[in-house]
Amino acid sequence: MTDETKPSVYETLPGQERYVAPIDETPLQDVDKVDESAPATSMWADAWRTLRKNPLFIISGLLIVCIVFVALFPGVITKVDPNYCNLDNSLGEAEAGHPFGYDFQGCDVFARTVYGTRTSLSVGLLTTIIVVAIGTLIGAVAGFCGGWVDALLSRIIDIFYSIPFLLGAIVVLQMFRTSSSIWKVVLVLALFGWVSTARIARGSVMEAKNLEFNTASTALGSTPMRNLFRHIIPNALAPIIVIGTTSLGSYIVSEATLSFLGVGLPTTTVSWGGDISQAQVNLMTNPMVLFYPSVALAITVLSFIMMGDAVKDALDPKSRTA
Amino acid sequence: MGKYLLRRILQMIPVVLGATLLVYALVFALPGDPVKAMFGDKPVNEAVAAQIRAEYNLDKPFIIQYLLFLKNAFTLDFGNTFAGQPVIDEIGRAFPVTIKLAVMAFCFEAIFGVVFGIISGLKKGKWYDSVILIVSLLLISVPTFVTGFAGQYFLGVQWSLIPVTASSNPTFTELLFPAMVLGSVSMAYIIRLTRSEISSNIAQDYVRTARAKGMSNGSVMTRHVLRNSLIPVVTYLGQDLGALMGGAMITEQIFNIHGVGFLTYQSILKGEGNLVVSIVTLLLLVFVICNLIVDMLYAALDPRIRYE
Amino acid sequence: MKKKALAIAAAVCAVATMLGGCGSSSSSSSSASSNIITAYASEPQNPLIPGNTNETGGGKPGDLLFARLVSFEAKGNASNEVAESITPNDDATQYTIKIKDGWKFTDGTPVTAESFTKAWSYVANAKNAQKCSSFFSTIKGFTDLQDAKNLKGDEQLSGLKVVDDHTFTVDMSQPDATFPIKVGYLAFAPLPESFYKDPKAFGEAPVGNGPYKFSKWDHNKEIDLVKNPDYKGNDVPKNDGVTFKIYTDDKAAYADIQAGNLDVMESVPASATKTFQKDPKVQAYNKAGSVSQTFTIPSNLEHFQTNTEEGQLRRQAISMAINREQLTDKVLGGIATPATEFTSPLTPGYSSSLKGADNLKFNAAKAKELWAKADAISKYDGQLTFAYNADGGAKPIYDAIVNQLKNNLGIDAATNPMPTFQEFRDAVTNRQIKGAFRTGWQPDYPSAENYLFQLYASSAADGNGSNDGDYKNAEFDKLMDEAYAAKSTEDANKIYQQAQEILLNDLPAIPLYYSNAAGVASTSVKGFEMNWQNLPVYEELTK
Using only C-alpha atoms, what is the Rg of chain B? Predict the structure, then answer.
């Protein structure tokens, strides 16, 4: 990033795809020079090379490592039991050993914020991954194939979209009443979440399909499927990454809605979403109880948005030279 | 194009049938017995309960119930709610209010989302890009009930700047703040989307070419960059209008707006199959039509996309 | 392109503004007119027919539109209204009811004996599918009117006989000393002749004989009542009318009270319980009320049976491990009163010092001791679950109860929320819940009988009534029969107290607290009081 104003010839990236003319035939050879000695690299390897040097990626990566650490080893951060709640402490002020004070039921807010990381992060991440994978695949196939495939898939998306989330969630979660695993929540969130990613993916793929490189690739004898996965999807990925990373936070909050309805995780499972929705009742008198889990949520979402931006820039070589 | 339109309209028939069947089945699968619940904590008189079940066809097998609903729906009779109100009247009361609210929220998120997204995308890395990032992040992380409730208390009750709740026939001013609350989360998404698209398109070859041709900066922006950046944004906006109408439950509750979101919520809790399905069908039509418009816009935005 | 898009957006917004503008002209101007009170309400769940109204949305306007044989003062004492006299025979199996002269419905027709008998038969008749029909089950001939398939809907209760225009008799199928109080319940209201011609139209625009006259019902928006000039009963309104404004949420209504857009509401949203009594923008009311909140442990739940020593010990231990003061104070913000017995402080005959009331007092040490004693009889280390419906705001209280049991008694407890009320009631009535579950009781008429017989008598068990825990105790049933045959309400109340002492030992349900009559009114309103139903006394309000 240091040299963005003055592209240096020595920084030309290996594997650059714009090949113009044999080097010795053109005076532009320095600019468009392709380092032929470098091994052929994929777009992903390329992206990784760029990422490593991006401060945005480093900062967000460090943050995510910290968050994952807290999620894996909450006991290292705090020794307080997040499920020990005593009404004597209800909405109590911060004190030694309890830096964030107590919530409405008299539970330690710090311990709950720490222990909530695991649930919230797993729900958010897993849902995002599933939604992006399924949504991209279905949307891309619809946009790429067009015709009756598109019609069929698009109409299925329409039907899914029309089901009220509340209704679907109650009925589906009823089937897993006794399970306390977070997978049931991930399943429901993903079941109703993939459609919007699919629509976005479809639009982007329809756009990318008509770009020159696709025509070129087809002309060079590439099969349509190879085209779709090697060229079109990677090029249509930017909006999907943006929506995916931004939605991560909303999945974490939606988990709370389900618990609140009595169909989500057992009430003994600590999660940010659950604590946020419980704290809303006393928003006017004790805003700090709401504040801490919200900040934890915001930092997590911010890390993933930054990470998403960095990855997206790395995948799109043109945008980074802007 | 005409043929394409016709085909899309014909496709709506199986979609509506499929969706109504699915939603009807889901309402049927809701645990509990709506008739028993009508008696509250009080003892249920089985003879009366049986009479009520017969009146609403709840004593018949699921598929018969659905077919009866369909048959009546063809004559525009959507049945009665458990409170004895014609479903069509309930919907007629709720939809106009919600359409008003949703359209206002939609305008709000579309205009501000795209404008802030462009500013942010053009000046990537500048301080106002960061400010816009932080604001959109806040909108995403702070739940709607907090923004809505806090806004109502401070702007409405304390400082009397906005109406506290909407009246029975809500006016533009009464719905303004609720619409902003409702549209705020989607606005954050649109800002992020627009920003990302603008920043990648601005580096494209055709922009350089256009500039090289001597085209003015403004023209480059509107005729090339924006046009090419809008496909994902339009997709998102297109599906959001339907979502805004169906999913305004929290906002409607906070500001006492008797709209579709609240009606849907209530009818699901009470297990009112006819009402839920009728609402869903209408929302589905909105959604399908929005998608059709979006697909038309694709072709307008990118002439290489063609529908035959 | 951008300009075009903006122009379209602006045009759409302009349309929205126009739509808004059109709407505003017709918006209600009720707050402007001098002495009309605006009150918080929810949309009625049924047509406004007294016998079909069993929830507060319809109950609030219904109570004001129809005058019954007796009316209740704010404190809950009954006095004759339309009735001149209600005279029982010796064993309370027949009542002779005389009604006053000169009562009229708002359509001008007179209120006669037949206005009552035909209305009661209509409600009792299963063909008409009226939700309050079980209230008439003690009247002779009720069982003949339950086979809806072979009824036309106009068959009459054989126990009701019209003597003359102002007199009728009621034959009971079993003695019922509380009948003279029961007839004050809304379902016992008289109906005009016009009702039977078109019940559906009547349900949309009811014609009554009460302190107020129906004006209009704008669905999901408001119900307007105006003062009935012909009314000369016990509760003559001091204002010119009541407009019930229908709200989506009590928080929105509270904000409107603060802003002066609404005059009165009978609840306080959870977000305001800690502040409403100090809030200078509202008038607060907060006194002990009549709604009793309990949780029930099924009487035949293993290790918890009400008829074994082990079960009784465990029930008492659980009850004593709950700190009710802390619940009402910290969780409910002081809008509830800790329970001391099974009725309520507003019920005639209430006492806070019955034998066994100690079982409802917090005593962690004693609780542990009793639990250990029970464990000595038979070891139990299962998890006790507490079921409730998640759509009714009961979560904080059950979270707190579970925490108290874990901390004070050291047992394994957990909540078991169910998403909707209908699912919860279905699980309760089908006896599918293997643990404790939420129970609450809002009285229909102010009498201990309404709390005790309906909830704990053997004859109300097994799905025949509201005895959802299937509690059966012969001694208790005997006292209930004695109370029904008692000579006076005072005598009956003494017997009810004895019956309660049995309940306090067996604890078929564990009383938690009484929801207070807690509400707020805008600062411009005068005469704000609340009655035994936890509702404002609408007739007394002025501004």
Answer: 24
Q: Which residues of B touch A167 (CB under 8 A)?
A: 23, 26-27, 30, 268, 276
- pLDDT tens-digit profile of C299-329? 999 999 999 999 999 999 999 999 999 999 9
From A157's Cα to the closest Cα of chain C, the distance in A is: 27
Q: What is d(CA C27, CA C18) in angstroms, rounded to the nearest whole number? A: 15
pTM assigned to the model: 0.85
Q: Do C403 and A263 touch (CB under 8 A)?
A: no
Phi first, then psi: give them for residue A72, nearest 5 degrees. Answer: -80, -40
**d(CA A268, nearest CA chain C) in Å:** 8
Could you tell me if residue A81 is inside a domain? no
User: Which of C43, C219, C466 is opposite residue B42, by nearest beta carbon?
Assistant: C466
C134 vs B contacts (CB less than 8 Å): 42-43, 45
Average pLDDT of C121-127?
A: 94
Inter-chain touch A171–B302, beta carbons under 8 Å: no
pLDDT tens column, C450-486: 999 989 999 888 888 889 999 999 999 999 999 988 8
- Asked if residue A42 belongs to a domain, the reply is no
Question: Residue A165 falls within a domain, yes or no?
Answer: yes
- The Cα–Cα gap between A19 and A216 comes to 13
Contacts of A281 in chain C (CB under 8 A): 270-271, 396
Distances (CA, A) of B56 to B49, B60, B65, C139: 11, 9, 9, 29
State whether residue A17 sits within 8 Å of chain B by CB: no
**Residue C309 CB coordination number (10 Å):** 12
Helix (H, G, I), strand (E, B) or coil at C530: strand
Among 3.40.50.2000, 3.40.50.300, 3.10.310.10, 3.90.76.10, what is the CATH number of C67-197? 3.90.76.10
Strands C413-418 and C384-389, sheet pairing: parallel
Average pLDDT over residues C61-76: 93
- For chain C positions 404-443, those within 8 Å of chain A (CB to CB) are 404, 407, 414-415, 417-420
**Is pLDDT of B127 > 90?**
no
| Closest C-chain CA to A267 | C415
Distance of alpha carbon A259 from alpha carbon A268, whole angstroms: 10
* Structural domain harbouring A300: 57-74+103-316
- Taking contacts as CB-CB distances below 8 angstroms, the residues of chain A near B250 are none
Distance between C451 CA and the closest CA of chain A, angstroms? 29
pLDDT of A33 > 60? The answer is: no
- The DSSP-derived string for C208-225 is --SSEEEEEEETTTEEEE
Distance, C-alpha C451 to centroid of its chain: 11
| pLDDT band, residue A266 (cuts 50/70/90) | confident
User: A261 to chain C, minimum CA–CA distance in Å?
Assistant: 5
Chain C CB contacts of B90 below 8 Å:
219-220
Q: What is the mean pLDDT of chain C?
A: 89
Distance between CA atoms of residues C341 and C349, nearest Å: 11
pLDDT band at A11 (very low <50, low <70, confident <90, very high): very low
Bridge pairing between strands C160-164 and C212-218: unpaired
Q: Would you state the CATH architecture of domain C289-516?
A: Roll (3.10)
ipTM, 2 dp: 0.85
For range B291-301, the mean pLDDT = 86
Dihedral sign from CA coordinates of B109, B110, B111, B114: positive
Domains parsed from chain B with CATH numbers: 90-266 (1.10.3720.10)
Task: Give the model's pLDDT for residue A47.
Answer: 78
- Compute the average pLDDT of residues A81-97: 87
CATH of the domain at A250: 1.10.3720.10
What are the E-state strand segments in C198-325? 212-218, 222-227, 241-246, 264-265, 282-296
Give the integer Cα–Cα distance in Å for C134 and C331: 36
